[in-house]
Amino acid sequence: MSSSLQPDEFALLVDRTGRHFLTKIRPTGQFQCHHGVLQYTDMVGKQEGARLETSLGKPLWIFRPRLQDYLMKMPRSSTIIYPKDIGVLLIWADIFPGARVLEAGAGSGALSLALLRAVGPDGDLVTCDIREDMMQRARRNVTNLMGPMPNWSLCLCDVYHGLPDGPFDRIVLDLPEPGLVARHAAQALVPGGILCSFVPNVPQVQQTVDAYRETQAFVEIETYEAQVRPWIFRGPSARPTHSSVGHTGFLTFARRGEA
Length: 259
Ligand SMILES: C[S@@+](CC[C@H](N)C(=O)[O-])C[C@H]1O[C@@H](n2cnc3c(N)ncnc32)[C@H](O)[C@@H]1O
Prior knowledge:
Blueprint: E1 10-14, E2 20-24, E3 30-33, E4 36-39, E5 50-53, E6 59-63, H1 67-73, H2 83-92, E7 100-104, H3 110-119, E8 124-129, H4 132-146, E9 152-156, E10 168-173, H5 182-188, E11 189-199, H6 202-215, E12 218-224, E13 231-234, E14 237-240, E15 250-256
Parallel strand pairs: 7-8, 7-10, 8-9, 10-11
Antiparallel strand pairs: 1-2, 1-6, 3-4, 5-6, 11-15, 12-15, 13-14
The structure holds S-adenosylmethionine (SAM).
Protein backbone atom coordinates (compact mmCIF):
# COMPACT_ATOMS: atom_id res chain seq x y z
CA MET A 1 0.00 0.00 0.00
CA SER A 2 1.67 3.24 -1.06
CA SER A 3 -1.20 5.69 -0.53
CA SER A 4 -0.79 8.61 1.84
CA LEU A 5 -2.00 8.50 5.45
CA GLN A 6 -5.63 9.47 6.04
CA PRO A 7 -7.89 10.38 9.01
CA ASP A 8 -9.10 7.35 11.05
CA GLU A 9 -6.01 5.32 10.18
CA PHE A 10 -3.55 4.21 12.83
CA ALA A 11 -0.14 5.86 12.64
CA LEU A 12 3.08 4.71 14.23
CA LEU A 13 5.43 7.52 15.22
CA VAL A 14 9.06 6.52 15.73
CA ASP A 15 11.66 8.68 17.48
CA ARG A 16 15.45 8.77 16.97
CA THR A 17 15.99 6.00 19.53
CA GLY A 18 13.43 3.70 17.91
CA ARG A 19 10.77 4.34 20.54
CA HIS A 20 7.25 3.79 19.22
CA PHE A 21 4.05 5.80 19.71
CA LEU A 22 0.77 4.49 18.28
CA THR A 23 -2.07 6.89 17.59
CA LYS A 24 -5.19 7.08 15.48
CA ILE A 25 -5.18 10.06 13.12
CA ARG A 26 -8.16 12.28 13.96
CA PRO A 27 -9.63 14.90 11.60
CA THR A 28 -8.71 17.56 14.18
CA GLY A 29 -6.77 17.79 17.46
CA GLN A 30 -3.25 16.91 18.42
CA PHE A 31 -0.98 14.07 19.45
CA GLN A 32 1.19 14.72 22.48
CA CYS A 33 4.20 12.93 23.96
CA HIS A 34 7.36 13.93 25.83
CA HIS A 35 8.87 15.06 22.50
CA GLY A 36 6.16 17.71 22.16
CA VAL A 37 2.98 18.13 20.14
CA LEU A 38 2.02 17.19 16.56
CA GLN A 39 -1.19 18.35 14.88
CA TYR A 40 -3.18 15.49 13.34
CA THR A 41 -3.76 17.68 10.27
CA ASP A 42 0.03 17.62 9.72
CA MET A 43 -0.07 13.79 9.53
CA VAL A 44 -2.86 13.64 6.93
CA GLY A 45 -1.59 13.23 3.36
CA LYS A 46 1.92 12.19 4.43
CA GLN A 47 3.63 9.20 2.83
CA GLU A 48 4.97 6.51 5.15
CA GLY A 49 8.48 7.34 6.28
CA ALA A 50 7.89 11.11 6.26
CA ARG A 51 9.80 13.07 8.91
CA LEU A 52 7.63 15.34 11.06
CA GLU A 53 8.77 17.90 13.60
CA THR A 54 7.10 18.34 16.99
CA SER A 55 6.38 21.68 18.69
CA LEU A 56 9.71 21.18 20.54
CA GLY A 57 11.63 20.69 17.27
CA LYS A 58 12.07 16.92 17.76
CA PRO A 59 11.84 14.62 14.72
CA LEU A 60 9.29 11.79 14.56
CA TRP A 61 8.98 9.49 11.56
CA ILE A 62 5.47 8.41 10.60
CA PHE A 63 4.48 4.94 9.36
CA ARG A 64 1.49 2.66 9.20
CA PRO A 65 1.93 0.24 12.12
CA ARG A 66 3.01 -3.31 11.29
CA LEU A 67 0.66 -5.90 12.70
CA GLN A 68 3.13 -6.59 15.52
CA ASP A 69 3.27 -2.88 16.44
CA TYR A 70 -0.49 -2.84 16.81
CA LEU A 71 -0.65 -6.14 18.73
CA MET A 72 1.88 -5.02 21.31
CA LYS A 73 0.08 -1.72 21.99
CA MET A 74 -3.62 -2.57 21.69
CA PRO A 75 -5.68 -2.91 24.92
CA ARG A 76 -5.58 -6.40 26.46
CA SER A 77 -7.98 -8.37 28.64
CA SER A 78 -5.82 -11.51 28.49
CA THR A 79 -2.31 -12.62 27.74
CA ILE A 80 -1.84 -12.44 23.99
CA ILE A 81 0.14 -14.73 21.75
CA TYR A 82 3.32 -12.80 21.04
CA PRO A 83 4.39 -11.97 17.48
CA LYS A 84 7.40 -14.34 17.69
CA ASP A 85 5.03 -17.27 18.37
CA ILE A 86 2.43 -16.10 15.84
CA GLY A 87 5.12 -16.06 13.15
CA VAL A 88 5.99 -19.71 13.77
CA LEU A 89 2.34 -20.69 14.18
CA LEU A 90 1.30 -19.25 10.82
CA ILE A 91 4.01 -21.12 8.93
CA TRP A 92 4.01 -24.45 10.83
CA ALA A 93 0.22 -24.66 10.84
CA ASP A 94 0.34 -23.57 7.19
CA ILE A 95 -2.48 -21.04 7.47
CA PHE A 96 -3.16 -20.32 3.79
CA PRO A 97 -5.26 -17.76 1.89
CA GLY A 98 -8.78 -19.18 1.55
CA ALA A 99 -8.48 -21.53 4.56
CA ARG A 100 -11.43 -22.20 6.87
CA VAL A 101 -10.01 -21.86 10.40
CA LEU A 102 -11.46 -22.43 13.86
CA GLU A 103 -9.83 -20.56 16.75
CA ALA A 104 -10.37 -20.82 20.54
CA GLY A 105 -10.21 -18.65 22.63
CA ALA A 106 -10.61 -15.13 21.44
CA GLY A 107 -8.81 -13.44 24.36
CA SER A 108 -7.74 -9.99 23.20
CA GLY A 109 -7.91 -10.86 19.51
CA ALA A 110 -4.18 -10.81 18.75
CA LEU A 111 -4.19 -14.20 17.10
CA SER A 112 -7.54 -13.49 15.40
CA LEU A 113 -5.96 -10.48 13.68
CA ALA A 114 -3.06 -12.55 12.37
CA LEU A 115 -5.33 -15.41 11.27
CA LEU A 116 -7.72 -13.05 9.47
CA ARG A 117 -4.85 -11.50 7.59
CA ALA A 118 -3.45 -14.93 6.68
CA VAL A 119 -6.73 -16.47 5.44
CA GLY A 120 -7.54 -13.31 3.49
CA PRO A 121 -10.92 -12.32 2.04
CA ASP A 122 -11.52 -15.78 0.52
CA GLY A 123 -11.00 -17.58 3.84
CA ASP A 124 -13.15 -17.86 6.96
CA LEU A 125 -12.37 -17.57 10.64
CA VAL A 126 -14.65 -18.81 13.42
CA THR A 127 -13.45 -17.69 16.86
CA CYS A 128 -14.91 -19.24 20.02
CA ASP A 129 -14.72 -18.07 23.60
CA ILE A 130 -16.45 -19.05 26.79
CA ARG A 131 -16.56 -15.41 27.92
CA GLU A 132 -18.66 -12.68 26.33
CA ASP A 133 -16.34 -9.92 27.67
CA MET A 134 -13.34 -11.52 25.94
CA MET A 135 -15.23 -11.71 22.66
CA GLN A 136 -16.12 -8.03 22.97
CA ARG A 137 -12.50 -7.08 23.59
CA ALA A 138 -11.34 -9.17 20.62
CA ARG A 139 -14.05 -7.68 18.40
CA ARG A 140 -13.03 -4.12 19.35
CA ASN A 141 -9.34 -4.75 18.73
CA VAL A 142 -9.95 -6.44 15.38
CA THR A 143 -12.47 -3.95 13.98
CA ASN A 144 -10.45 -0.97 15.23
CA LEU A 145 -7.62 -2.02 12.92
CA MET A 146 -9.31 -3.93 10.11
CA GLY A 147 -12.86 -2.54 10.08
CA PRO A 148 -15.87 -4.90 9.86
CA MET A 149 -14.83 -8.43 8.80
CA PRO A 150 -17.67 -10.30 7.06
CA ASN A 151 -15.64 -13.53 6.98
CA TRP A 152 -15.17 -13.60 10.78
CA SER A 153 -17.73 -15.02 13.19
CA LEU A 154 -17.53 -15.04 16.97
CA CYS A 155 -19.16 -17.90 18.82
CA LEU A 156 -19.90 -17.98 22.57
CA CYS A 157 -19.26 -21.62 23.56
CA ASP A 158 -17.20 -23.97 25.69
CA VAL A 159 -15.04 -25.85 23.20
CA TYR A 160 -14.25 -28.55 25.79
CA HIS A 161 -17.83 -29.74 25.17
CA GLY A 162 -17.90 -29.47 21.39
CA LEU A 163 -17.01 -27.30 18.40
CA PRO A 164 -19.12 -25.32 15.92
CA ASP A 165 -19.97 -27.18 12.72
CA GLY A 166 -16.95 -28.00 10.57
CA PRO A 167 -15.21 -29.08 8.55
CA PHE A 168 -12.20 -26.87 9.16
CA ASP A 169 -8.83 -26.84 7.40
CA ARG A 170 -7.07 -25.71 10.56
CA ILE A 171 -7.91 -25.54 14.29
CA VAL A 172 -5.88 -23.27 16.56
CA LEU A 173 -6.24 -23.43 20.35
CA ASP A 174 -4.98 -20.93 22.92
CA LEU A 175 -6.65 -22.06 26.14
CA PRO A 176 -5.58 -23.95 29.26
CA GLU A 177 -6.46 -27.56 28.29
CA PRO A 178 -6.17 -28.16 24.54
CA GLY A 179 -6.14 -31.91 25.19
CA LEU A 180 -9.85 -31.72 26.07
CA VAL A 181 -10.53 -30.53 22.51
CA ALA A 182 -8.53 -33.28 20.78
CA ARG A 183 -11.44 -35.64 20.04
CA HIS A 184 -13.74 -32.85 18.82
CA ALA A 185 -10.92 -31.48 16.68
CA ALA A 186 -10.29 -34.88 15.12
CA GLN A 187 -13.97 -34.96 14.03
CA ALA A 188 -14.04 -31.38 12.78
CA LEU A 189 -10.81 -31.31 10.77
CA VAL A 190 -10.60 -32.21 7.09
CA PRO A 191 -8.28 -35.15 6.26
CA GLY A 192 -4.75 -33.77 6.44
CA GLY A 193 -5.99 -30.76 8.43
CA ILE A 194 -3.73 -29.28 11.09
CA LEU A 195 -4.39 -28.81 14.79
CA CYS A 196 -2.22 -26.32 16.65
CA SER A 197 -2.18 -25.40 20.31
CA PHE A 198 -0.31 -22.92 22.48
CA VAL A 199 0.25 -23.44 26.21
CA PRO A 200 2.76 -21.81 28.59
CA ASN A 201 3.67 -24.69 30.94
CA VAL A 202 5.42 -28.05 30.56
CA PRO A 203 2.71 -30.15 32.31
CA GLN A 204 0.11 -28.59 30.00
CA VAL A 205 2.09 -29.41 26.88
CA GLN A 206 2.70 -32.97 28.11
CA GLN A 207 -1.05 -33.47 28.67
CA THR A 208 -1.76 -31.99 25.25
CA VAL A 209 0.62 -34.34 23.43
CA ASP A 210 -0.71 -37.36 25.38
CA ALA A 211 -4.30 -36.43 24.52
CA TYR A 212 -3.49 -35.96 20.83
CA ARG A 213 -1.78 -39.39 20.78
CA GLU A 214 -4.67 -41.09 22.59
CA THR A 215 -7.14 -40.16 19.87
CA GLN A 216 -5.03 -42.07 17.32
CA ALA A 217 -6.34 -39.53 14.85
CA PHE A 218 -3.16 -37.47 14.49
CA VAL A 219 0.29 -37.98 13.00
CA GLU A 220 3.32 -35.69 13.00
CA ILE A 221 2.76 -34.45 16.55
CA GLU A 222 5.52 -31.92 17.13
CA THR A 223 6.20 -29.32 19.83
CA TYR A 224 8.31 -26.18 19.49
CA GLU A 225 9.43 -23.25 21.58
CA ALA A 226 10.17 -20.12 19.54
CA GLN A 227 13.08 -17.98 20.64
CA VAL A 228 13.94 -14.64 19.08
CA ARG A 229 17.02 -12.85 20.37
CA PRO A 230 17.41 -9.19 19.36
CA TRP A 231 20.95 -7.82 19.01
CA ILE A 232 22.31 -4.30 19.48
CA PHE A 233 24.88 -2.69 17.19
CA ARG A 234 25.93 0.65 18.71
CA GLY A 235 29.47 2.02 18.30
CA PRO A 236 31.91 -0.69 19.35
CA SER A 237 29.14 -2.62 21.11
CA ALA A 238 27.70 -5.61 19.21
CA ARG A 239 25.82 -7.95 21.52
CA PRO A 240 22.39 -9.41 22.35
CA THR A 241 20.12 -6.96 24.21
CA HIS A 242 20.08 -7.25 28.01
CA SER A 243 16.31 -7.66 27.94
CA SER A 244 14.02 -9.40 25.49
CA VAL A 245 10.82 -11.47 25.61
CA GLY A 246 11.75 -14.60 27.57
CA HIS A 247 9.64 -17.72 27.81
CA THR A 248 6.12 -17.43 26.47
CA GLY A 249 4.90 -20.92 25.66
CA PHE A 250 4.99 -24.09 23.60
CA LEU A 251 3.42 -24.62 20.21
CA THR A 252 2.22 -28.14 19.43
CA PHE A 253 1.19 -29.14 15.92
CA ALA A 254 -0.56 -32.34 14.80
CA ARG A 255 -1.87 -33.50 11.45
CA ARG A 256 -5.18 -35.32 10.94
CA GLY A 257 -4.44 -38.77 9.55
CA GLU A 258 -6.19 -42.14 9.44
CA ALA A 259 -5.97 -44.27 12.61
C1 LIG B 1 -4.93 -16.58 26.67
S1 LIG B 1 -6.53 -16.14 26.13
C2 LIG B 1 -6.39 -16.18 24.36
C3 LIG B 1 -5.55 -15.03 23.82
C4 LIG B 1 -5.65 -14.85 22.32
N1 LIG B 1 -5.13 -15.99 21.62
C5 LIG B 1 -4.90 -13.61 21.90
O1 LIG B 1 -3.84 -13.75 21.24
O2 LIG B 1 -5.34 -12.49 22.19
C6 LIG B 1 -7.46 -17.59 26.46
C7 LIG B 1 -8.93 -17.46 26.14
O3 LIG B 1 -9.52 -18.76 26.16
C8 LIG B 1 -10.82 -18.66 26.65
N2 LIG B 1 -11.25 -19.99 27.10
C9 LIG B 1 -10.80 -20.68 28.18
N3 LIG B 1 -11.42 -21.88 28.26
C10 LIG B 1 -12.27 -21.95 27.20
C11 LIG B 1 -13.18 -22.94 26.74
N4 LIG B 1 -13.33 -24.08 27.40
N5 LIG B 1 -13.89 -22.70 25.61
C12 LIG B 1 -13.73 -21.51 24.95
N6 LIG B 1 -12.88 -20.54 25.34
C13 LIG B 1 -12.15 -20.75 26.46
C14 LIG B 1 -10.70 -17.61 27.78
O4 LIG B 1 -11.94 -17.03 28.11
C15 LIG B 1 -9.71 -16.63 27.16
O5 LIG B 1 -10.37 -15.58 26.50
